[in-house]
Amino acid sequence: MQKIICLTFLIVLASRGVASAQSWAVHGSAGPTLRDPGYGVAAGVEFSPAPYFGLVFNVERTHLASYVRHDGDVTSTFRGATLTLGTAELRVTPFGNRRLRPYGLVGTGAGVARPNEDPRFPGEGTTGRVRSIFAGGGLHVPVRQHLSIFAEFRMMLVAEEKGEGLVGAGPLRAGLAWRF
What single DSSP character describes residue 116? Predict the structure, then answer.
């Protein structure tokens, strides 16, 4: 069954209409995280075998700051961390290559989490391997023939491979993409 799926995929990619639509892009982006204080940066490459979807591979780093929140008699603390992930995502552009290109994305990633050094958490936290899943969307706006700007938001759930840690992060990033 896998051989049939792979063969079908290769035939579709090699077909004249789809092959002429293939493109590659490189991109870089940066921006804040929503809800929790922090920031995220990413760089990657995209392969688009058709005008309506692309496969994206990123290296991204998201830093979540440590904080203390007070709400009346309740105090909550969060020990932040820096997440470094290699990610793979499927990006779907429902309207193809038009002037404004909204897209949706879904993906997964793996990497490491390094807890922030913080005197409020003595002796806690070690660097650990993590896995993530995420979904989101964005908008590409062409500037020149090969250059475009984009903004995207994704909601990530990141879990430790061994342990109980689970954290959500919402990076909002803007950047530049160069399509070949």
Answer: P
